[in-house]
């Protein structure tokens, strides 16, 4: 079994409504996303001896994740406060993206993992999401 990964960087804003610290305020991060794939090598065809083509990984992550999240306001659609901010931003023609959960690093990592796992044919084994250079979350399912 082989493991490969590809790393991406993107910028996004959010807040944590009800948080007891400074993250209750609107703020942004430059996120680093690492997508890990785990599989045996492809045996035939143009991708022979690869787990996956890095170009294919890049195209898939760009299409399914970064196109929506990069330079967006990510918000919890169940939060009236966050939804009100999103509505204002939409009026101002700014990019927003809604989740069904709080926008913690943990929930964002799980969202990304599940979206890639269910909407691509890549053998995703884990997602690591750095919110700061020294803080990251890893999500994988057994």
General description of the model:
The chain is α/β, with parallel strands linked by helices. It contains three helices and six strands. It has helices at 54-69, 80-91, 105-119, and strands spanning 2-14, 27-39, 72-76, 96-99, 124-132, 135-139. A six-stranded mixed beta sheet has the order 4-3-1-2-5-6, with helices on both faces. Strand 5 and strand 6 form a beta hairpin. Helix 1 packs across helix 3.
Q: Main traits of this protein?
A:
142 residues, alpha/beta, 6-stranded mixed beta sheet, 3 helices
- SS-based structural class? alpha/beta
Strand order of the largest sheet: 4-3-1-2-5-6
- Proportion in β-strands: 25-35%
Q: What is the string of SSEs from the N terminus onward?
A: EEHEHEHEE
Mean pLDDT: 97
**What is the end-to-end distance?**
15 Å
Shape summary: elongated
Poorly predicted spans: none
Largest sheet features? 6 strands, mixed
Counting DSSP H or I runs of 4 or more residues, the number of helices is 3
Question: Which range best describes the helical content: under 10%, 10-25%, 25-40%, 40-55%, 55-70% or over 70%?
Answer: 25-40%
- DSSP E strands, number: 6
Over all CA atoms, what is the radius of gyration? 17 Å
């Amino acid at each position: 079994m082989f493991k490969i990964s590809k790393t991406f960087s993107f910028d996004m804003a959010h807040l944590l409504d009800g948080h007891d610290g400074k993250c209750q305020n609107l703020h942004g991060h430059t996120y680093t996303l690492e997508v890990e794939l785990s599989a045996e090598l492809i045996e035939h065809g143009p991708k022979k001896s690869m787990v996956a083509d890095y170009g294919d990984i890049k195209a898939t992550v760009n299409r399914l994740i970064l196109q929506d999240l990069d330079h967006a306001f990510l918000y919890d659609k169940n939060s009236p406060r966050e939804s009100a901010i999103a509505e204002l931003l939409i009026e101002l023609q700014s990019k927003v993206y809604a989740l069904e959960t709080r926008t913690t690093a943990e929930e964002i990592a799980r969202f990304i993992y599940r979206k890639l796992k269910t909407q691509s044919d890549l053998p995703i084994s884990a997602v690591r999401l750095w919110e700061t250079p020294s803080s990251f979350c890893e999500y994988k399912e057994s």
